[in-house]
Amino acid sequence: APVVVWFRNDLRLDDNPALDAAARSGAPIVALYVLDDDSAGDWRMGAASRWWLHHSLASLAADLARLGVALTLRRGRAEFVLEALIAETRASGVYWNRLYEPWAMRRDSEIKANTRAKGLAVESFNAALLFEPAHLRNKQGDVFKVFSPFWRACLATGGPPAPLSPPKKLKAAPAPQSEALDDWRLLPTKPDWATGLRAAWTPGEKAARKRLADFASGPVRDYKVARDFMAEAGVSRLSPHLHFGEVSPRRVWAEIMGAAGDVGLPFLRELGWREFCHHLLVANPHMPERALDGRFSDFPWRDDPAALVAWQKGRTGYPLVDAAMRELWRTGYMHNRARMVAASFLVKHLLIPWHAGESWFWDTLVDADLANNSGGWQWVAGCGADAAPYFRVFNPVLQGEKFDPEGAYVRRHVPELARLEARWIHRPWEAPADVLRKAGVTLGKTYPAPIVDHAEARARALAAFDEVKGT
Ligand code: FAD
């Protein structure tokens, strides 16, 4: 009898323990992907992620086809889809790699119990993380709440297990009927907002591995310093590939250590933050919705729809924030430092709840990831575990001058400021009138005047924090 390999965010052949175990079992394989929006509820994939998913599935289907296996696509509640497919194929078991989103963990443990109760084999594996969350505990036996000791404990394990090689051969079962990928309408039609995404990215395992190899062969050595400079290619841009599982974190670890040894550790430490966010999410399933720091449940947020739209559209009048938000809209990605500054601007300068930013990112990021996104927002808002203290308010002007000193990042994404001298590019409202005129900038007309004053906004944010601080 065949076995089903249920692909999820592990859209690769390399270091895929579920596929590997199914191949080793000797049974013919049915490969399945389920688009299960019902179970995901509020956290169903956003628009940019859907664009990515379409291309990633096409790439996986082609790679599987080369090994003679068809990828079966079905839509609906996974438990019903799986039940029907098992009946159709008379499968004897199901293999999958684990997900760590709370909704998926709930769903999968039910499916596991029900399927086993029918006498079928169910095997699940860790393919998404370096270390299984249940296995890492502090000396008191609790989940780590602070990153540094967490990371020390990760390193003390001696590193994750070595990655598995991709299967050379697969035995295919007769392919069940599949839905057509195009019928899922994962791509935008009118308007087609994906032009910038297409220019910036190539989804799929092959492209993921090339990006990793390119990064490991050079940039990783300068990462420690270069990672903060927003206009430079100092970061790996592996995040969407990692989110969709086109490359495994164990493969990343092995290649970086192989190419750079300990020089690669500052980079692997960031992969550690991904790990930390996932472990936190498993321990705190409400993390995407509720502040981990209970004091923030009564925080005096403001309701300001006009300011929210200005932020979303990159029209706040702060060049760095606007460049960041426009990079996001155009390419589905935002540099990490820009994420911190733009997110901080929303929650501190505008006092708009972090959830509003979290859901905008969720819809527009190609790397939208429940653990990293909610972890990142709670970190910036100062309400998470091991978060930035609330009173530390990022200054978008100084951040720009420090980490985009020539203004190249702003020029790339905010063309109406492209001709402004570097000296003024992060503070156009202070530029002399003739400088603005020469650069073709009229504040309030060609480019917005700041929607809030930094010093006033900072004072307002600190006063709001004072209200909850002692509670
Ligand atoms: P690199 O610097 O090359 O890092 C390598 C990998 O490590 C990344 O691909 C990512 O998987 C992981 N990583 C790096 N930094 C972090 C971090 N701070 N937290 C968690 N993982 C990290 N990351 C996402 O993958 N999805 C999100 O939805 C997301 N939302 C965020 C929201 C906010 C408000 C903030 C401040 C950060 C968010 N991040 C998110 C984390 C981080 O900004 C991105 O992972 C990173 O910018 C991706 O670019 P890169 O692959 O070039 O990173």
Which secondary structure elements does this structure contain, and how are they paired or packed?
Blueprint (H helix, E strand, L loop, with lengths): L2 E5 L9 H9 L3 E7 L1 H4 L6 H20 L4 E5 L2 H12 L3 E5 L4 H16 L3 E5 L21 H10 L38 H6 L4 H12 L6 H4 L12 H5 L5 H12 L4 H19 L21 H9 L5 H13 L4 H14 L4 H11 L5 H12 L14 H8 L4 H6 L8 H4 L7 H7 L14 H16 L2
Parallel strand pairs: 1-2, 1-4, 2-3, 4-5
Helix pairs in contact: 6-12, 12-17, 14-15, 15-17, 16-17
The site of flavin-adenine dinucleotide has 28 residues, from α10, α12, α15 and α17.
Apparent shape: globular
Supply the CATH superfamily name of the largest domain: DNA Cyclobutane Dipyrimidine Photolyase, subunit A, domain 3
Strand order of the largest sheet: 3-2-1-4-5
Low-confidence stretches: none
Intertermini distance: 61 Å
CA radius of gyration: 24 Å
DSSP strand (E) fraction?
Answer: 5-15%
Count of discrete alpha- or pi-helical segments spanning 4 or more residues? 22
How many structural domains can be distinguished in the coordinates?
A: 3
Average of the residue pLDDT scores: 96
CATH topology of the largest domain: DNA Cyclobutane Dipyrimidine Photolyase, subunit A, domain 3
Helicity, as a percent range: 40-55%
Bound molecules: flavin-adenine dinucleotide
Structural class: mainly alpha
Query: What is the tally of beta strands?
Result: 5
What summary fits the major beta sheet? 5 strands, parallel
**Would you list the SSEs in sequence order as H and E?**
EHEHHEHEHEHHHHHHHHHHHHHHHHH
- How would you classify the quaternary structure? single chain
